[in-house]
Specification:
about 575 residues, alpha+beta, Rossmann fold, 6-stranded mixed β-sheet, globular
């Protein structure tokens, strides 16, 4: 289960005069200083788009008589994506978190805050429980509501859902999780587990708009945009590529690169797992701005290697290496031996690894590429404000409710996001594979339904919850046997010695022999060569490391040109066959 993480300063305040979020130190509309907004880290915000409004309408349908989107149509609503076992979002109105939307087991519910009541009291369903005066005083002093203190139960109260507790005069005093309803009432024990105590109506009911939010943040945005542009100008004499994935962050990076006046080629990596709409969108944007676009095509690499590796997972991301880094390595190598500077829409708030990389980094998987990001310290609110401020066309999949856009079945997605994607034809081929894989390996229906293929080693709490097992994959294992005067590598199954003889040319002559006897100084490299010989999937990453063109791909596997290889072993960097063994 995820915990709150720190990936950067939670950079958001609120102007109570204009009722809009503020990223800087003052509001440009009224000049006032913003108050700090208390939210859960890391602080990734967005304005609800059509798909998000649809989700909110469903999530709040148990508590509202009208649609959420109608009740809050005149307020500027923000969503903050927070860590959780599934998609989880804080709903912010008036600079306060009024509720949390929680997805679990393909359903969605809400956890309410007192502020929600003051905005929506006239639209609420009968989710009230009245406490007698003695119980009400106990609640205010920190107690839960016990069954003897219940005076009445609303007809739409549901066991397990949030309820609003009123005193006998009809004043709201607390919000809690009900353990009772009209069909499940008892005389003793806890009736409601209290979560929040009401402290008075202090919510901001001024109407506001997205356009006003952009105006209020104008000077901060101009400063950050100019800072990003000046950063990019430092690289104008370099060999530049701009990576345009079709997502919001790469869109902003692309637009900033154009504003910086850089000369660059745009590249789009088609992993074979992209949405059709993404491919169309990338081409349309490239045509609109008259960009020089190269499409790096991974072809059917993913489905071709599925049988070998099995489903990818959050802890088993061979797909990125085979479908992204391999094709990128080959493309970079085709451009020559000079360093290539790739402008990438990477942000620290996306993940811990990206937060640690800085705004200039080298990728050990892709030789000759240096990554640079002009928006490394931007949060997603800044990204969305930029898009709306400059009236940029964004990928339509955001309007369908996704926060991030990439491969359609990426294992890093939450179940709720996959559920959105699964309603479209793009998911059909993957669904068929997962169904068949589950049957073949006796993994069970829940493994499919709850997308537990997203882990190679399923977290213990999910194993226990769903009573499922990990994925099954038999693969090559190598062991070291110490025979006194020599060391020997012992495989758990037969290996192709004819192929290994070719691959052994990578190593110094005395490192490994045909009896699999290995020199002590070359154990790791010898084991990698054996794994590559047996498990190679032809991703081509290693070919990009060879300066002598001694490696080539034939029939989906890498081979050594024995006449060109000088046994330098530089090709033995990170390799999917070795890393994901």
């Amino acid at each position: 289960m995820s915990n709150p993480v720190y990936l950067g300063r939670v950079n958001i305040g609120w102007c109570d005069e204009c009722n809009v979020p503020i990223l800087g130190e003052r509001c440009d509309r009224c000049g006032s200083s913003p108050r700090k907004v208390s939210v859960t880290p890391p602080g990734e915000f967005k304005f609800p788009l059509q798909g998000d409004w649809n989700i909110l309408d469903i999530a709040f349908s148990d508590v509202l008589k009208s649609r959420f989107s109608d009740v809050f149509s005149n307020y500027l609503v923000l969503l903050n994506r927070i860590p959780g076992p599934d998609r989880t979002e804080e709903v912010i109105v008036g600079g306060n978190v009024i509720a949390t939307v929680l997805h679990e087991d393909l359903s969605v519910r809400v956890s309410l805050r007192p502020e929600f009541y003051y905005y929506a009291s006239e639209y609420l369903k009968d989710i009230f429980i009245v406490a007698d005066n003695l119980a009400a005083r106990s609640i205010i002093n920190g107690s839960n509501l016990m069954a003897p203190g219940v005076k009445s139960i609303g007809r739409e109260v549901k066991k397990g859902n949030d309820v609003i507790i009123m005193d006998e005069e009809g004043k709201p005093i607390a919000i809690g999780i009900s353990r009772i309803d009209l069909n499940n009432f008892f005389e003793r024990g806890m009736a409601v587990k209290i979560k929040f105590i009401f402290s008075g109506d202090n919510v901001n009911k001024k109407h506001s708009s997205l356009r006003e939010a952009i105006e209020a943040n104008r000077s901060y945005m101009e400063r950050e945009e100019n800072r990003a542009i000046e950063f990019l100008k430092r690289f104008r004499e370099k060999n530049l590529l701009v990576s345009f994935s079709g997502g919001k962050d790469s869109l902003v990076s692309l637009h900033l690169s154009m504003r910086a006046g850089l000369k660059f080629k745009t590249v789009f990596l088609n992993t074979g797992l992209e949405f059709d709409e993404t491919i169309e969108y990338v081409k349309r944007i490239s045509d609109h701005y008259s960009l020089d676009l190269d499409i790096i095509d991974a072809g059917d690499a993913f489905f071709k290697h599925l049988e070998h590796f099995g489903p990818p997972g959050r802890d088993y991301r061979w797909c990125c290496k085979v479908c992204k880094l391999g094709p990128t390595t080959r493309y970079i190598k085709s451009l020559g031996n000079e360093k290539i500077y790739m402008i990438i829409g990477q942000r620290a708030y996306e993940s811990r690894s990206r937060a640690l990389s800085g705004n200039i980094w080298e990728n050990e998987w892709v030789p000759n590429q240096i990554g640079i990001s002009a928006i490394q310290k931007w949060n997603s609110l800044m990204v969305w404000l930029y898009i709306f401020r400059h009236d940029l066309e964004y990928n339509k999949w955001y309007d369908r409710g996704l926060w991030r856009i990439g491969c359609f079945m990426c294992p890093s997605q939450d179940l709720a996001d996959l559920e959105i994607v699964s309603k479209f034809p793009v998911y059909d081929k993957w669904r068929s594979f997962i169904d068949e894989y589950s049957k073949k390996n006796n993994l069970g229906e829940k493994w499919v339904r709850y997308a537990l293929w997203r882990w190679n080693k399923i977290p213990d709490y999910l194993k226990k919850k769903y009573n499922v097992n990990d994925k099954v994959r038999e693969s090559l294992k190598l062991y070291i046997k110490d025979e006194g005067d020599k060391l020997k590598i012992v495989p758990n199954k037969n290996i192709d010695m004819n192929r290994l003889k070719n691959m052994m040319h990578i190593l110094p002559r005395a490192a490994l022999n045909e009896d699999l006897e290995v020199h002590r100084n070359f154990i790791d490299k010898a084991m990698q060569v054996i794994y590559q010989s047996e498990e190679c999937v032809g991703c081509g990453i290693c070919t990009g490391r060879c300066n002598y063109n001694a490696l080539y791909i034939n029939e989906g596997r890498v081979w050594v040109d024995e006449d060109k290889c000088i046994r330098c072993t530089k090709c033995l960097g990170p390799c999917p066959a070795y890393v994901f063994r």
